[in-house]
């Protein structure tokens, strides 16, 4: 029998499936629940256990991890008679790894405390590739003692793991991360269109740019997407649109001006409005191409 905590995993999407599988590989007993049967089948094939409901998944868990798209989904699985707070045992640790508003995380921690359940907000950065390779950056909000308890689990999922402050701090840092990523992708997309219209060998140009000060993790991860026009979703435009809404709203609340971020948020919104919401966020290239006169 393993001495590792028993884990319930709620949400087995593009990120959740490989992350839960990495916990299984590390020796954790993982019971999962999601809405898609094929994702449950994938979990059981990897050595996990499928649960028919949130309540069933969390009932005997020491740690409950949620990885769902946005604040409404977190609230849907956390609250109500069939939710996590009503069915997890007192003393359990709830780790929300979704990207949601900081206030949602703060409210969840308060509600969970009344049930004797501890909470960490622990959103991640690194995309699907980072999830598969277990090299995610994990930004955490909550109590130091809960972070210390969860750290071995985080180490099975990521490489850079930092407690950023109290409840909600992880989500605030994730919002800043999404701001930087979106602006970076937009800059890369504009550079690609400029280079191609100038008749430069795009692959050679991106290789040399990525070796200098213009280089970035974004360019490393998304270079092939740009070169091949492969926009299969690693992180969907729809989700980045949601995240840009989070960061612009949070910035307004604290009185921080985001002039470039606001423009990129509108470009992401327009890309989504043109029907590209299901594509990878590197599809911002398509928006720049349209603005530059291409038929996309």
TrEMBL record:
GO terms for molecular function: 2-hydroxy-3-oxopropionate reductase activity. Its EC number is 1.1.1.60. Residues 6-165 form the 6-phosphogluconate dehydrogenase NADP-binding domain. InterPro entries: 6-PGluconate_DH-like_C_sf, 6PGD_dom2, 6PGDH_NADP-bd, HIBADH-like_NADP-bd, HIBADH-related, NAD(P)-bd_dom_sf, Tartro_sem_red. Pfam families: NAD_binding_11, NAD_binding_2. The keyword Glycoprotein does not apply. Keywords: NAD, Oxidoreductase. Transmembrane segments: none annotated. Residues 168-287 form the 3-hydroxyisobutyrate dehydrogenase-like NAD-binding domain. Gene3D superfamilies: N-(1-d-carboxylethyl)-l-norvaline Dehydrogenase, domain 2 (1.10.1040.10), NAD(P)-binding Rossmann-like Domain (3.40.50.720). The keyword NAD applies. It is an enzyme of class 1 (oxidoreductase). Belongs to the HIBADH-related family. This is 2-hydroxy-3-oxopropionate reductase. The lineage of its organism: Bacteria, Bacillati, Actinomycetota, Actinomycetes, Kitasatosporales.
């Amino acid at each position: 029998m393993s001495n590792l905590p028993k884990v319930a995993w709620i949400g087995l999407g593009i990120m959740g499936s490989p992350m839960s599988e990495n916990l299984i590989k590390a020796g954790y007993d993982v019971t999962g629940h999601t809405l898609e049967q094929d994702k449950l089948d994938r979990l059981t094939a990897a050595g996990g256990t499928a649960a028919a409901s949130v309540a069933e998944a969390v009932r005997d868990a020491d740690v409950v991890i949620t990885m769902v798209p946005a604040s409404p989904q977190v609230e849907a699985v956390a609250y109500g008679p069939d939710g996590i707070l009503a069915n997890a045992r007192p003393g359990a640790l709830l780790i929300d790894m979704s990207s949601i508003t900081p206030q949602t995380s703060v409210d969840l921690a308060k509600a969970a405390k009344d049930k004797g359940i501890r909470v960490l907000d622990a959103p991640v950065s690194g995309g699907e590739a980072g999830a598969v390779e277990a090299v995610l950056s994990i930004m955490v909000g909550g109590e130091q003692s809960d972070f210390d308890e969860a750290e071995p689990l985080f180490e099975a999922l990521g490489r850079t793991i930092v407690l950023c402050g109290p409840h909600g701090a992880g989500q605030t840092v994730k919002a800043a991360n999404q701001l930087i990523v979106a602006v970076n992708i937009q800059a890369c997309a504009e550079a690609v269109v400029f280079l191609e219209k100038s008749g430069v060998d795009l692959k050679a140009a991106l290789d040399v740019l990525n070796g200098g000060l213009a280089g970035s993790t974004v360019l490393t991860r998304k270079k092939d997407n740009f070169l091949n026009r492969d926009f299969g979703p690693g992180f969907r435009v729809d989700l980045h649109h949601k995240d840009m809404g989070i960061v612009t709203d949070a910035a307004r609340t604290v009185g921080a001006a985001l002039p470039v971020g606001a423009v990129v948020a509108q470009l992401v919104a327009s890309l989504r409005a043109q029907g590209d919401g299901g594509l990878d966020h590197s599809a911002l290239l398509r928006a720049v191409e349209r603005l530059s006169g291409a038929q996309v």
